[in-house]
Design goal:
Length: 179
Amino acid sequence: MTVREILKMGDARLLRIAEPVVVFDTDALHALVADMTDTMAAANGAGLAAPQIGVNQQVVIFGTDAVNPRYPEAPVVPRTILINPVITPLDDELEDGWEGCLSVPGLRGLVPRNRRIRYQGFDLFGDAIDRTVEGFHARVVQHECDHLIGRLYPTRMRDLTQFGFTEVLFPGLGVADDD
Ligand code: NI
């Protein structure tokens, strides 16, 4: 399919509340997810939300089948297409972790997220997804679903001194991408 342009922070389209998908397994929905998959792969992203390519629908993808070069220390998260997601924190425990975003290229920030969550939603065919996860997997899901309510990770940060350029914060990472 097509590698699409990724909108960057400052674009008002990233601030919208996304609409739920009402009909599953359509050609248009398959085409959207194919474009998102190609766009995420081209950018070595850990996840991508439809609003990031200007499509205001509740569709996110995340995960990889192998180690992500942008997050070489991160555990593998299963490749997932998640539609109309609902997140339920399982307790009050927050955990700080470094995040980047393809819409905020070149930067990383330390972001508190719920450590343990349940997430529910649907796949491309309208079949239910219901998982209980923790740690990095939970972080990725929270980050991507935030895109569906117009939130970018800097707005979740508590300490803006922990926000900076990836190449400065992590000089040994050797990331070749712009993020
Ligand atoms: Ni993002």
